[in-house]
Amino acid sequence: MRTPLIAGNWKMNCTLAEARELALAVVEAAKGLNDREVLLAPPFTALSATAKELAGESVILAGQNVAWEEKGAFTGEISPAMLKDVGAMAAIIGHSERRQIFGESEAMINARLRAALQAGLMGIFCIGESLEIREKGQADVEAWLKKQMEEGLRGVSAAAARRLVIAYEPIWAIGTGKTASQEQAQQAHAYLRLLLANMYDKSLAEEARIVYGGSVNPSNIDELMSQPDIDGALVGGAALDKEQFARIIQFQAAN
Ligand code: PEP
């Protein structure tokens, strides 16, 4: 039985005051929802302030990225130990904005993921195809996802992969208002689970959470969460709006 995970990625948004207010609202909205996990990924500057609001609560704190080295001359980076020190238990890795805007390679993402998992963090590994690939057809989408999974998970042991969450985020659906249909998302998630079974084993694949990201909002969350292989959502824009995010974490799946 997989526990659904709803994650809010605040990206490069929120002053300390805004982060505190949003975190407090999320804590209130998540109260009593014991059958699901809620996670917040503030910018690095707001991790500490957000951690204070989440203290003693079940909402999980995450970094939006993490370095593969422990410490040293890596300007602009934050290590797994630093994330843990501030109270984070998870890190988003390989977000399409990191790949596209900042040029992060598959090798870098693989190193980040291995370091995060090795340090005991939950690693939220983002993958997904461009519109160009989607328009070529399902076979090309699957070939792309297979390549990203193989490169991203290279050298990740089965024990470490138990702390893995896969975020399927079709690039054409991120921040565009276009959501993959529930059928498209389900098809991709089922394929990713099959890949996990082939790369590791069936029980790991059955237990692994695969969350969907791409313009998730209050009006599509229930139908997405009704799909058998969709185990949650990674939410960008709507995570910055306390009412919308509250409704998303209070999703009601039809099954
Ligand atoms: C994201 O950035 O991971 C994301 C899914 O953003 P949005 O919800 O705004 O599409």
Model regions low in confidence, pLDDT < 50 over at least 5 residues: none
The name CATH uses for the topology is TIM Barrel
Strand order of the largest sheet: 1-2-3-4-5-6-7-8
Which molecules are bound in this entry?
A: phosphoenolpyruvate
Write the layout of secondary structure elements.
Layout: E1 5-9, H1 16-30, E2 37-41, H2 47-54, E3 60-63, H3 80-85, E4 90-93, H4 96-100, H5 106-118, E5 122-127, H6 131-136, H7 138-152, H8 158-161, E6 164-168, H9 182-199, H10 202-207, E7 209-213, H11 221-225, E8 232-235, H12 242-249
Parallel strand pairs: 1-2, 1-8, 2-3, 3-4, 4-5, 5-6, 6-7, 7-8
Helix pairs in contact: 1-2, 1-12, 7-9
The structure holds phosphoenolpyruvate (PEP).
Phosphoenolpyruvate binds near residues 9, 174, 213 and 234.
Q: In words, what does this structure look like?
A:
- The protein has 12 helices and 8 strands.
- By secondary structure, the chain is α/β, with parallel strands linked by helices.
- It has a single domain, classed as TIM Barrel, CATH 3.20.20.
- The chain has an 8-stranded parallel barrel, surrounded by 5 helices.
- Helix 1 packs parallel to helix 12 and helix 7 crosses helix 9.
- The longest helix is centred in the C-terminal third of the chain and has 18 residues.
- It is globular and about 45 Å long.
- The model has no long low-confidence stretch (mean pLDDT 97).
- Phosphoenolpyruvate binds next to strand 8.
